[in-house]
């Protein structure tokens, strides 16, 4: 056994001597070469070798640091025929209300005590009904219009916890309309059309993915679902999206196209579809996708976030991450700090109250901070971009013409440029570079 060990050591020593003697760093061989060199010369070369090792280590470290910190670059992709995109999600907000009487019936069903107060407070109740109807279409841009109401209405005829339920019932639900479906998806695919609560009030969402967390069914849920897969299209597919509004309604509709991995937010661009008009629009997508080998990196290395990045600080109000959901997080913090409540359309934690009329009027005083999701006295999360970004740019919108049925026909233009987040330094490049610097 001992014999064997020593022979291994001998062989290692021989090998080292051999590799040192042929090493391209000439100094190393000068150190150990048979006694021809003087002591001073050897000390000089030992010094030189140490300096070079330090230099190599420093250079290696800088490569390593680069790998650790910014190993991703964005490149232009040209595999045009292999590109696959997700068809946008459409959020449709219609300014249509069912009749007054329906709203009164619902409120009275929910609030039996109302019976007495209604007689006592006739005009205040009427004001409150108007306020509720408004609520469906108001947002940060218009909450200041509640000034008058907030002076006149002193009683709550409906608890804010019930706003959502009531607004769901009294606003247009195109999924409920019978007969012809209101939406034709591209490529004859079928996707759900669901009620969704947004910063523009109660809307409908078609081809939802992340948006499901704002539908009543999942509003309180923090589970993950895989039931809502977006429609995928390639260059060979015709991608036209047709929306036809039920004939019985007369209001204007606003339609927002956004990525399935995103939710609509207050500043997004929209198409506006008036009653009994035919509108044709075209959108082109600006696309950034992330290559497979980037996905396992840390968020810091990627400099973007996936819907699920394990180990990263999650959003408090959402089980998945997106850039807009991160902005919502900031708006929620601002609303809670200044008005101690949040609007009914945000997801909430148990102790966070829903804004009543005075709460919403209070929000109007912080309009700028809320819209830009920025306030110097509040620590908002650092909102990184989504790793996969689809921005749908309005490309061409013709003037709407009169038509029997209110219709929107939208074409999504296949992009001709795609940006890919790619790895510059893989681990293999890294070891290669380190070896290169050593020799
Ligand atoms: C409501 O008022 C009507 C008459 O105005 C009365 O018959 C009814 O019992 C009242 N209901 C409640 C729950 O107080
Ligand atoms: C709204 O809520 C606040 C605090 O929760 C309360 O003081 C106020 O009276 C409420 N406003 C109305 C109109 O009920
Ligand atoms: C969410 O939970 C709260 C209380 O737990 C409940 O009052 C509310 O109705 C729920 N919302 C939905 C949409 O299910
Ligand atoms: C959203 O789509 C992705 C694929 O793009 C899928 O993995 C995920 O499960 C979907 N989310 C839901 C809620 O269905
Ligand atoms: C709406 O009215 C038009 C014209 O009367 C008709 O062609 C169309 O089928 C109607 N749409 C629905 C969904 O009933």
TrEMBL record:
Keywords: Ion channel, Ion transport, Membrane, Sodium, Sodium channel, Sodium transport, Transmembrane, Transmembrane helix, Transport
Keyword Ion transport: yes
UniProt keyword Repeat present: no
Ranges annotated as spanning the membrane: 43-61
Superkingdom of the organism of origin: Eukaryota
GO MF annotation terms: ligand-gated sodium channel activity
Database matches in InterPro entries: ENaC
Any one GO CC term of the record: plasma membrane
Topology class, membrane: Multi-pass membrane protein
Similarity remark: Belongs to the amiloride-sensitive sodium channel (TC 1.A.6) family.
Protein name: Sodium channel protein Nach
Organism of derivation: Dendroctonus ponderosae
């Amino acid at each position: 056994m001992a014999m064997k060990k020593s022979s291994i050591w001998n062989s290692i020593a021989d090998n080292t001597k051999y590799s040192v003697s042929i090493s391209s760093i000439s100094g190393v061989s000068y150190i150990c070469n048979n006694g021809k060199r003087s002591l001073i010369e050897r000390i000089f070369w030992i010094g030189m070798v140490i300096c070079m090792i330090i230099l190599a280590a420093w250079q290696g470290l800088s490569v390593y640091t680069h790998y650790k910190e910014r190993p991703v670059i964005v490149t232009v992709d040209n595999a045009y025929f292999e590109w696959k995109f997700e068809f946008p999600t459409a959020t449709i907000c219609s300014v249509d209300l069912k009749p007054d009487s329906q709203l009164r019936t619902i409120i009275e069903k929910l609030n039996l005590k109302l019976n007495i107060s209604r007689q006592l407070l006739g005009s205040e109740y009427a004001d409150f009904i108007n306020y509720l109807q408004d609520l469906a279409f108001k947002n940060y841009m218009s909450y200041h219009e509640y000034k008058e109401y907030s002076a006149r209405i002193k009683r709550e005829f409906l608890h804010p916890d019930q706003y959502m339920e009531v607004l769901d019932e009294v606003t247009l639900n195109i999924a409920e309309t019978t007969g012809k479906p209101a939406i034709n998806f591209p490529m004859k695919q079928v996707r759900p059309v669901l009620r969704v609560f947004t910063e523009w009030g109660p809307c409908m969402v078609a081809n939802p993915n992340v948006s499901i967390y704002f539908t009543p069914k999942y509003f309180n849920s923090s589970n993950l679902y895989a039931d809502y897969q977006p429609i995928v299209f390639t260059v060979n597919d015709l991608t036209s999206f047709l929306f036809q509004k039920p004939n019985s309604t007369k209001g204007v509709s606003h339609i927002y196209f956004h990525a399935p991995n995103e939710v609509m937010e207050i500043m997004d661009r929209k198409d506006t579809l008036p009653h009994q008009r035919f509108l044709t629009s075209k959108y082109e997508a600006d696309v950034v996708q992330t290559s497979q080998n980037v996905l396992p990196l840390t968020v810091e290395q990627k400099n973007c976030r996936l819907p699920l990045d394990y180990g990263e600080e999650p959003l408090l109000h959402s089980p998945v991450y997106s850039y807009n959901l991160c902005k919502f997080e900031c708006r929620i913090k601002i609303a809670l700090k200044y008005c101690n409540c949040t609007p009914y359309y945000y997801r909430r934690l148990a102790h966070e109250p829903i804004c009543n009329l005075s709460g919403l009027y209070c929000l109007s005083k912080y309009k700028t901070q809320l819209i830009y999701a920025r306030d110097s006295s509040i620590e908002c999360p650092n909102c990184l971009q989504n790793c996969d970004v689809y921005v749908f740019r309005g490309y061409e919108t013709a003037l709407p013409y009169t038509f029997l049925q209110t219709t929107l026909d939208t074409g999504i233009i296949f992009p001709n440029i795609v940006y890919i987040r790619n790895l510059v330094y893989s681990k293999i490049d890294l070891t290669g570079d380190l070896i290169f610097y050593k020799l």
